[in-house]
Design brief:
It is built from 3 helices and 5 strands.
């Protein structure tokens, strides 16, 4: 169900063999889409699923050892994509449990919040 007025915020927790995907539509509660592979076919299927959910798609993931291949692939498909530095993502003191799902959901929450603030300032 594609709603051209809605914005889909997507957070990706990227690893060499897998990508965990979380999303939120118009800053609604974050939902987990699941884990996918990293092949071009897997990325293509993900892009089709994301396009079907909203008119505008904003993607964010943490910079890592995998480089910018995913970034270039998403930009080529027409998505707005941002790669953020892991050191710039706020963390609570004492928070040590890291899971792919939590990381992806955290990226969605922060990105949708900061995107909303940035658009409001313009």
């Amino acid at each position: 169900m594609n709603n051209n007025n809605s914005t889909l915020y997507v957070g990706l927790d990227v690893h060499k063999e897998s990508i965990t995907v979380a999303y939120s539509i118009n800053s609604e509660p974050v939902e987990l889409m699941g884990k996918i592979g990293t092949t071009p076919t897997d990325i293509g299927h993900l892009c089709k699923r994301l396009i079907s959910k909203a008119g505008q798609v904003q993607v964010v993931y943490e910079a890592g050892p995998c480089g910018y291949g995913l970034y270039r692939r998403l930009i080529k498909k027409g998505f707005d994509c941002m790669v953020c530095a892991p050191s710039l993502i706020p963390k609570k003191p004492g928070e040590r449990v890291k899971t792919d799902r939590r990381d992806a959901a955290r990226l969605v929450r922060y990105y949708s919040y900061f995107y909303f603030i940035a658009c409001d300032l313009q």
